[in-house]
Design a protein that fits this description.
Layout (H helix, E strand, L loop, with lengths): L40 E2 L3 E9 L3 E8 L4 E8 L5 E2 L8 E2 L3 H21 L10 E7 L2 E7 L3 E3 H8 L5 H20 L12 E4 L4 E3 L11 H4 L23 H17 L6 H6 L15 H10 L11 H8 L8 H20 L2 H12 L7 H4 L7 E5 L2 H14 L9 H10 L6 E5 H4 L5 H8 L8 E3 L15 H6 L11 H4 L6 E7 L1 E5 L6 H7 L13 E3 H7 L5 E3 L1 H11 L22 H12 L16 E4 L1 H7 L4 H4 L3 E8 L2 E12 L5 H16 L11 E2 L2 H7 L9 H8 L4 E4 L6 H8 L10 H15 L1
Keywords: ATP-binding, Kinase, Membrane, Nucleotide-binding, Serine/threonine-protein kinase, Transferase, Transmembrane, Transmembrane helix
GO molecular function: protein serine/threonine kinase activity
Organism: Jutongia hominis
C-alpha cells in the first residue's frame, strides 16, 4: 500500500514514479538531511510524508494514518542545537553534558504540551491533538491535518482587509480560542499570523503551544522564549518580567492592527522609548471609533493599561464595553494618583510621629549592639598561623576606640568592644597545642572547660556533633543584598550553627615565564605552563585533568575530593587510564613527593620547605595557593602567574570559607562577645583585607580587594562574579574535603586507583554529606 501512495498528497498513484495528482516524484530526498525520509513508519501505523513546517523545537510532517485512513500532521520533537541525526536514520542522537540535560527537560515539557492541548478535545477553533508517544529517542504529537492557509500567507497576499466583517470573521474565532486557552490557566505567548490557520471551510484554528506557559509545574512553566517582531509584547523580551493573559491580548491587538491597516506594528520594545504608533483612525481608515480604541488599548505598551482579560477585549470589539486609548487611560490614572497624593499629605505628620515612635519607644533592639558586655576572656581557635594573624588584625581594627565620623551604631558597639579588646585570645591549635588538627583538638576537649568559645569550622568533620549556639541573630542583622551568595545561607546552614565570612573559588594557577625577569626565571627554574593564556577567564576541569597525563598539573588536597565528586560518572573521563592518578604532592608528604617527582620526571619544583609550600608549574587550588604566591619568598612573589576559574560544565566551584561556630556551653556573656566579633568580621567595611585572604563575602570589601598589590591579578574572578557566571555553590560540609583527600593520598602511586576505588570513595563522600 505504502509504495502505491504518493508521499506528498497520499493519493493512490499506483506504480507511477511521478504522482499524477500533485507531481511529486517518488524517492525525492527530504530537503534537509536530518528530516525523516518519506515512507518511514512511526507508531506502527503513521506513514511519514513531506515536511510541512520546521521550527526551533520541532519538525512537522504530513503523515498518513493507515488505521483510520486519514491524513494527519505529526510534530516531532527536534530542538535545534541539542540533537542531531544522520541522513536516512530514524533515531535522534543526543549531545552530551549540559545539552543532554537540557534536552531531557525540554522533552518533558514537550509531553506536557501534548497533554495540555489534548484537553481541548475537538474544539473547533484549536487544532485537535489525537495522540502522543515516545519513539526514536524523541517524541511525537499526532494532530489534525488542516488543508488551509496560514493567516501570515493570507495577509501577505491580501494586504489590508477592507471589509470589517471579514476582519471579525477571522479574529472572533481566535478570541474564542484564547478564551478556552486562558480558562485552562494557559498563556499561549505566541499568538501570531504564522500560528493561525484559515481552513478551507472558512474555520479558523490556533495552533503551536511550544512557547506556552502551560501550568504551575516545573515542566509546564519552562516554555522557551519565542519573540515574533511586531506581535510580541515588551514583557516577553525580558527574562524575569511578569507575563499574564494581557500578554496574549497584545498579540491579538497587533494582528487586528495589521488586518485593518495593512501595516505590521513596530517592535514593542521600540515603542517603550518613543511610541509613535498611530491608530487606524489617525491613518485615515474608516473604522468605528470604539473599535479603534479597542485595538489601541490592546496594544498598550504598559501591561496595566491593556485589557486585563480576553473577555474585556471581546466586549469592546462587540460594542458592549467602552474602550480607552492608553494615553487617555494614563492621564486618568495620573489625576487619580495626584488626588491620592494630595489626600495623603494630610496624613504625613501622623505617619512621621508613628515612625518616630518606632525609632525610639517601639524600636526593636539589636542585642548584639544594645546589650552591655562584661570584661571576660574568651578563646578563639583557628588552625593555621595566617588565619591567626588575620583575625588578630581584625580585632585590633574593630575592637578599637571609636573615631569621629563613624556611624552611631558603630560608635556604640566599639565602645563596648573596647572593654574586651585584650581579652580575646586567638590560638593556632596546629602549632600552639599538642593536638595537631582542629578535629583532634575539639574531640579531646569536648565537654570540658578547655573547649573553645569560638572556633574556625572549615576543616571540622562534623561541627554539629558539638553543642553550638544558633547564629540566626547575626544573620537577621545583616542586609543580605550587600553580600555575595549570602541569601542562600539558610539553605545550606538550616540550623544557623556556622557563619561564613568569606568565599573560596577553585582556580587554576599557572606560571607564565614569558613575562618574568630573566634572573627570577633562572632562580625559579620554571618553564611556562601550556595553559598560560591571558585571554581566557575560565577553563574546564576535564581539560586540566586530561593535561595531567603530561604530568603538568598539581592538585590541592583541599579540593581533590571536590573534583572527584563532581566528575565521577561524568561522560568523557577515563579513570582507568589514570586521569585521577595525580602526580603532585599533598600536605604532609610534600617534601617526599617533590623529591620523587623531580627525580622521576627531571622537572623542577618550587618548594619552600613547608608542608603547605608551592609545587608544580600549574596548580588547581583555592586561596591557600594564592597566599603562598603572595608570600614573603621573593622568588615566588615575583613569579608571573595567570589564573582561571576552574569550571565543571561552565559552572564555577564556589564554597563558603572562613566559617566560625560558637559553643553553646560558654556563658551568655562569652557568647555575646564572640557574636560581636563575628558580626564585625561580617559587617564592617573598614576592616582591612589581606592579599592572603579568601575572597570577602561582603560586596564592598570584595570590590576593594582587587584594587591593591597582587590582588589585581585576580580580577578575572571579580569579572565572572560581577556578571553572575553560573556556579555550583558548595554547601555545608565542604570543609571536610581534605579528610577524603587523605584517603586518596598514597605515597606509592605507581599503580594508581581503579575506577571502582574512586567511585567507592566518592559514593562514601556523597552519602555522608546527605
Amino acid at each position: 500500500m505504502a509504495s502505491e501512495l504518493c508521499m506528498n498528497c497520499f493519493s493512490v498513484k499506483g506504480k507511477y514514479e511521478v504522482c499524477p495528482f500533485c507531481g511529486y516524484a517518488e524517492g525525492t530526498p527530504p530537503s534537509q538531511p536530518h528530516y525523516l525520509v518519506p515512507g518511514t513508519i512511526l507508531g506502527n501505523h503513521f506513514i511519514v510524508g513531506t515536511v510541512i513546517g520546521m521550527g526551533g523545537f520541532g519538525i512537522t510532517y504530513k503523515c498518513y494514518d493507515t488505521t483510520l485512513g486519514v491524513i494527519v500532521a505529526v510534530k516531532e520533537f527536534y530542538p535545534a542545537g541539542l540533537v542531531n541525526r544522520a541522513p536516512g536514520e530514524r533515531r535522534v542522537g543526543l549531545l552530551s553534558g549540559e545539552k543532554k540535560t537540557q534536552y531531557q527537560e525540554q522533552l518533558k515539557r514537550f509531553m506536557v504540551e501534548a497533554q495540555s492541548i489534548a484537553q481541548f478535545g475537538k474544539a473547533k477553533d484549536i487544532v485537535n491533538v489525537y495522540d502522543y508517544f515516545e519513539e526514536n529517542n524523541t517524541a511525537y504529537i499526532i494532530m489534525e491535518y488542516i488543508d488551509g492557509v496560514l493567516l501570515k500567507d493570507y495577509l501577505e497576499k491580501q494586504g489590508r482587509i477592507h471589509d470589517m466583517d471579514t476582519v471579525l470573521s477571522i479574529i472572533t474565532p481566535v478570541i474564542e480560542a484564547v478564551k478556552k486557552i486562558h480558562a485552562k490557566g494557559i498563556i499561549h505567548r505566541d499568538i501570531s499570523p504564522d500560528n493561525i490557520f484559515i481552513a478551507g471551510d472558512e474555520s479558523v484554528k490556533v495552533f503551536d503551544f511550544g512557547a506556552a506557559q502551560l501550568n504551575s509545574t516545573k515542566e509546564g512553566m519552562a516554555g522557551e522564549k519565542v519573540i515574533k517582531v511586531g506581535y510580541s509584547a515588551p514583557e516577553q523580551y525580558r527574562d524575569r518580567s511578569k507575563q499574564g493573559y494581557y500578554t496574549d491580548i497584545y498579540s491579538i491587538g497587533a494582528i487586528l492592527y495589521q488586518m485593518v491597516t495593512g501595516i505590521k506594528p513596530v517592535e514593542s520594545t521600540e515603542r517603550e522609548y518613543k511610541d509613535e504608533l498611530k491608530s487606524p483612525l489617525e491613518l485615515g481608515i474608516k473604522i468605528d471609533s470604539n473599535f479603534d480604541r479597542a485595538i489601541m488599548e490592546a496594544l498598550a505598551v504598559k501591561p496595566e493599561l491593556r485589557f486585563q482579560n480576553i473577555q474585556q477585549l471581546s466586549d469592546a470589539i462587540e460594542g458592549k464595553r467602552i474602550a480607552e486609548y492608553p494615553k487617555v487611560k494614563l492621564k486618568k490614572r495620573k489625576r487619580k494618583r495626584n488626588w491620592m497624593i494630595g489626600l495623603s499629605v494630610s496624613l504625613t505628620l501622623a505617619i512621621l510621629v508613628v515612625i518616630g515612635l518606632f525609632q525610639t519607644v517601639w524600636k526593636k533592639t539589636n542585642p548584639l549592639i544594645d546589650s552591655s558586655i562584661k570584661s571576660e576572656e574568651v578563646v578563639v581557635w583557628v588552625d593555621n598561623a595566617d588565619v591567626k594573624e588575620e583575625i588578630n588584625s581584625d580585632i585590633a581594627e574593630v575592637f578599637s576606640e571609636p573615631v569621629s565620623g563613624e556611624s552611631e551604631e558603630l560608635t556604640k558597639i566599639k565602645k563596648e568592644n573596647a572593654k574586651v579588646r585584650d581579652k580575646i585570645k586567638v590560638v593556632d591549635v596546629t602549632t600552639e597545642t599538642s593536638y595537631g588538627t582542629m578535629d583532634a583538638a575539639l574531640q579531646a576537649t569536648k565537654g570540658t572547660k578547655e573547649f573553645p568559645d569560638m572556633f574556625l569550622s572549615d576543616r571540622v568533620a562534623d561541627p554539629e556533633q558539638y553543642s553550638l549556639t544558633s547564629l540566626k541573630d547575626i544573620y537577621d542583622t545583616i542586609d543580605t543584598s550587600q553580600y555575595l551568595y549570602m541569601s542562600q545561607y539558610p539553605t545550606y546552614f538550616k540550623n544557623y550553627k556556622e557563619m561564613p565570612t568569606a568565599l573560596d573559588v577553585l582556580q587554576l594557577y599557572v606560571y607564565d615565564t614569558s613575562a618574568m625577569d630573566e634572573q627570577i626565571k633562572k632562580k625559579a627554574g620554571m618553564s611556562s605552563s601550556s595553559f598560560a593564556d591571558r585571554k581566557k577567564d575560565t577553563i574546564e576541569i576535564k581539560d586540566v585533568i586530561e593535561a595531567n597525563n603530561e604530568q603538568e598539573i598539581t592538585y590541592s588536597d583541599a579540593y581533590f575530593s571536590t573534583i572527584a565528586t563532581f566528575l565521577t560518572n561524568r561522560e568523557g573521563f577515563d579513570y582507568k587510564k589514570g586521569t585521577l592518578n595525580f602526580d603532585g604532592a599533598f600536605a604532609g608528604k610534600m617534601t617526599q613527593f617533590s623529591t620523587m617527582n623531580q627525580k622521576a620526571n627531571g622537572k623542577p619544583w618550587i618548594f619552600d620547605g613547608k608542608p603547605s609550600g608551592l609545587y608544580g608549574s600549574s596548580a588547581l587550588a583555592g586561596a591557600g595557593y594564592r597566599s603562598k604566591l603572595n608570600g614573603s619568598n621573593d622568588a615566588l612573589k615575583q613569579l608571573a602567574y595567570v589564573t582561571y576559574a576552574a569550571t565543571v560544565d561552565d559552572k564555577m566551584l564556589i564554597s563558603y570559607a572562613d566559617k566560625y561556630a560558637i559553643s553553646a556551653k560558654s556563658d551568655k556573656n562569652s557568647q555575646l562577645i564572640c557574636k560581636r566579633l563575628l558580626w564585625c568580621l561580617l559587617d564592617q567595611s573598614d576592616v582591612k583585607v589581606s592579599a592572603n585572604d579568601a575572597y570577602p563575602i561582603r560586596k564592598q570589601k570584595f570590590e576593594t580587594f582587587f584594587q591593591t598589590g597582587n590582588n589585581a591579578r585576580q580580577t578575572k574572578i571579580k569579572k565572572l562574579i560581577d556578571r553572575s557566571q553560573a556556579c555550583i555553590l558548595l554547601g555545608k560540609g565542604t570543609g571536610n574535603i581534605s579528610n577524603y583527600a587523605n584517603r586518596l593520598t598514597n605515597f606509592d602511586r605507581a599503580a594508581g586507583y581503579t575506577e571502582k576505588e574512586i567511585n567507592d570513595i566518592c559514593a562514601t563522600y556523597l552519602g555522608e554529606q546527605k
